[in-house]
Amino acid sequence: QIHPVESGGGSVQAGGSLKLSCIAVKYTYTTNCMAWFRQAPGKEREAVASIVTRGLGTFYADSVKGRFTISQDVAKETIYLQMNNLKPEDTAMYYCAAGGVVCRDLLPSTYSYWGQGTQVTVSS
Q: What is the pLDDT of residues 74-104, one digit of tens each?
C-alpha cells in the first residue's frame, strides 16, 4: 500500500504562491499516476493536476492551467504542486492521490490511495 502525506498548505492573499508537497514511498513501483485533487466546503471533490509516474506527461484542470505546475522528484519519492497567482476560489482542502489508469482523465474513482489533505486558504 501507499500512504501519501501532504504538506505545505497555508493562508495567502490573492496573487500569492504556495508549494505543496506529497511524500509517497515507493509510488513509482505500483502506480501509473500521481495527482492532486481539491475539495471546498459544500462542493464535490475536483481534479487539479496529474503526472505520469514512469514517463512524461502532466495534465491540468482548465481552472488551474497556466497557474499551477505539478512535478515529481523520484529520488525523494515526492510530488509537488507549485501554485502561483492564487485566487480566492482556489481555497480548498488539497489531497494527494496515487493510482490512476489514464492520467489525463483525472478521475478520482481510479485513485486507490489518498492522503489526509492540506488546507489552502486564499483571501481577497
A: 999 999 999 999 999 999 999 999 998 899 9
